[in-house]
Amino acid sequence: MTEATGAADPSAWLHLGAPDLTDLRAFHTTGRRITPAELLLYVEADLQIRDGDAVLFNEPRFEVAELAAELVAWVGDGSKPAEGFVHSPDAYAEPGVIRITQTRHGWVAGSCFTTATTAPRDWETVRDSIGTFMAEVRVLTARSMLDAGWSLIETIAALCRGFGLSIPESRSIVLPVSGREREFWDFQERFWDAVETFGAKDDPKKA
Fold it and tell me: Is the pTM for the entire model greater than 0.90?
């Protein structure tokens, strides 16, 4: 699997691979504004569950944004949850495609497609790993939307709506991914210069 997010953390359970833009590109041709639910559904990438070098789950075109959003909701305020995590996408007949379960030795990850699980880890490690995975998914989402044809502004707005981010938070993800930071800030500067110019024309005291 080709890694999409740079050198992966060898201790992480969830590993992202290359994105698949098929559904995003098809949606972009409709010209409609993408909703948060559609964003989570159409951002896809290869996904693996690993325990060191062992691969327990390997699936192409997995709806990784939806998975990340559910994981973040499960983590909540960061305190240890009372129940385990079960992810059952509509595209699968089997429940528990991704599972995180508490045992007496710690938390383990697995899938309904295998009886194997990862080695147990403490809650703090699991929580931090999920935070890292969410950050990687946000970057992958930004890159996928830009590659599929969305503009910088449209992508920033979509990440705000889809992941509940503020504009500065979304912008800090999208601009570095785009490689067009200078272009964006130049546009911002010209825009506000134009606003000030038009404002001065309308206000004799500023003219």
Answer: no
